[in-house]
């Protein structure tokens, strides 16, 4: 059906490439491009499909991107580099006439600030160019929005309370490691918490609110209220929502390390001068922490991510819990990566597949919940992320 260009050869990029390679009826020509070409070559070698092309590109540089797009001529770019590159890649897509998909919203490098405004500002230009941009198509954001859209379509007249619950009950046997890019991960967790309540955003101190939540096949885990980017688009696209929150589990050992990292200044994103060289402490920390791509081998346990929803159907109050559990070990056996990269990469591939099949093709800039969730939900079951649902149970929230 068409040509796809994957940008980024990290943990998520590796999973996207494996999954794209398993769906060659949809993705007829494939290229992986990243800052370091040898990492793209290593992915191709691991997949064992020599028809996949590779290239070096600096995705901060619009001209370099345009040149690459014009030579490979992809229908769609799957951006799984870092959030810092979202706008340059979107610019290049407009210049070269290429459609766009990513898994995380744009963040400026010098402020840890997450909001869609920068990317939503491209809506008119994508519309006028007849190009589709699909934002936030990983698991959360991504499947969390699709689960919500599916619930709204099939199980509720009005969604009133939405809680996205993200549990990683895995053990990688390292004292401290993050499951995806450490710089992006630590920026996300150390910021203030925030949730939506009756039309307003309520701010909390970082990790201030927490409670035990019970996850299927896992049991109770301490879960912390965080701000997460999909809350912004979901309350806009489902205006009946009265309260929307996001919860993530952390172990005590992880939180103790995080506190020390912050207290000694290593989570700072302000550049400092060290021996005549400017360095950003958090970027230096990333360089000495375990690489999330190397966690897979001894990773045990599973992730469990879902949406707990309360609202009305035919005048009656209903509850609905829809979730996926993903085994780190099974993800590793299939792709060489752990479950967090897997749960992000599989939906990114499915989103691109939805576009290629013409099911999610609509000029403009869209969040995933604005498309038909049904064909995507069907593919989740087929592509390694089966989901389960529970009706009218106690949501604990
Ligand atoms: P990694 O750090 O493992 O990989 C990022 C890749 O992007 C690396 O290959 C890196 O190159 C490449 N890259 C970085 N900067 C540039 C640049 N300027 N030009 C070209 N390539 C560049 O990150 P992950 O794979 O863990 O995460 C990828 C994305 O997925 C992130 O945006 C993250 O926020 C998002 N994510 C989304 C989730 C979701 O559920 N929605 C969950 C987890 C992650 P090099 O190898 O040379 O460093």
Kindly state the mean pLDDT as a whole number? 96
Please compute the radius of gyration using only Cα atoms: 20 Å
Q: Name the bound molecules.
A: NADPH dihydro-nicotinamide-adenine-dinucleotide phosphate
| Shape estimate | globular
Low-confidence stretches are none
Percent of residues in beta strands? 25-35%
Give the N-terminus to C-terminus distance in angstroms: 44 Å
Kindly name the structural category: alpha/beta
Amount of helix = 25-40%
* Annotation, overall tally of beta strands: 18
Number of distinct helices = 14
Q: What does the main sheet amount to?
A: 9 strands, mixed
Compact summary:
It contains 14 helices and 18 strands. It is an alpha/beta fold.
Descriptive notes:
The protein is of the alpha/beta class and 397 residues long. 35% of the residues lie in helices and 28% in strands. The chain is globular and about 55 Å long. Bound molecules: NADPH dihydro-nicotinamide-adenine-dinucleotide phosphate (NDP). NADPH dihydro-nicotinamide-adenine-dinucleotide phosphate (NDP) is lined by residues 8-13, 34-36, 39, 57-60, 80-83, 85, 103-104, 138-142, 180-181, 184, 292-293, 340-341, 344.
């Amino acid at each position: 059906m068409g040509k796809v260009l994957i940008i980024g050869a990290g943990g998520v990029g590796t999973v996207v490439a494996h999954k794209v390679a398993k769906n060659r009826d949809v993705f007829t020509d494939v290229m992986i491009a990243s800052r370091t070409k040898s990492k793209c070559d290593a992915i191709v070698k691991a997949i064992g499909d020599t028809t996949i092309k590779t290239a070096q590109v600096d995705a901060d540089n619009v001209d370099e991107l345009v040149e690459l797009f014009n030579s490979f001529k992809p229908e769609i770019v799957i951006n799984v580099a870092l959030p810092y590159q979202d706008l340059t890649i979107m610019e290049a897509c407009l210049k070269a006439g290429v459609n766009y998909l990513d898994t995380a919203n744009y963040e400026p490098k010098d402020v840890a600030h997450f909001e869609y405004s920068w990317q939503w500002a491209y809506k008119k230009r994508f519309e006028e160019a007849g190009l589709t941009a699909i934002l936030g198509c990983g698991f959360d954001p991504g499947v969390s929005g699709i689960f919500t859209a599916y619930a709204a379509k099939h199980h509720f007249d009005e969604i009133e309370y939405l809680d996205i619950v993200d549990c990683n009950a895995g053990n990688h046997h390292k004292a401290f490691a993050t499951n995806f890019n450490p710089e992006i991960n630590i920026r996300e967790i150390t910021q203030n918490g925030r949730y939506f309540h009756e039309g307003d955003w309520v701010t909390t101190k970082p990790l201030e609110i927490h409670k035990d939540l019970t996850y299927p096949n896992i049991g109770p885990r301490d879960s912390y209220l965080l701000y997460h980017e999909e809350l912004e688009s979901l309350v806009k696209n489902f205006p009946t929502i009265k309260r929307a929150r996001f919860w993530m589990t952390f172990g005590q050992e992880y939180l103790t390390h995080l506190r020390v990292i912050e207290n000694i200044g290593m989570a700072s994103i302000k550049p400092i001068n060290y021996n005549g060289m400017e360095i950003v402490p958090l970027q230096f920390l990333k360089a000495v922490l375990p690489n999330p791509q190397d966690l897979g081998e001894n990773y045990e346990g599973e992730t469990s991510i879902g949406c707990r929803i309360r609202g009305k159907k035919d005048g009656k109050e209903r509850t609905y819990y829809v979730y996926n559990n993903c085994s780190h070990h099974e993800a590793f056996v299939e792709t060489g990566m752990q479950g967090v990269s897997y749960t992000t990469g599989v939906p990114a591939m499915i989103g691109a597949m939805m576009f290629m099949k013409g099911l999610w093709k609509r000029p403009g800039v869209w969040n995933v919940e604005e498309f038909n969730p049904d064909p995507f939900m069907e593919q989740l079951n087929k592509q390694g992320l089966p989901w389960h649902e529970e009706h009218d149970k106690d949501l604990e929230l």
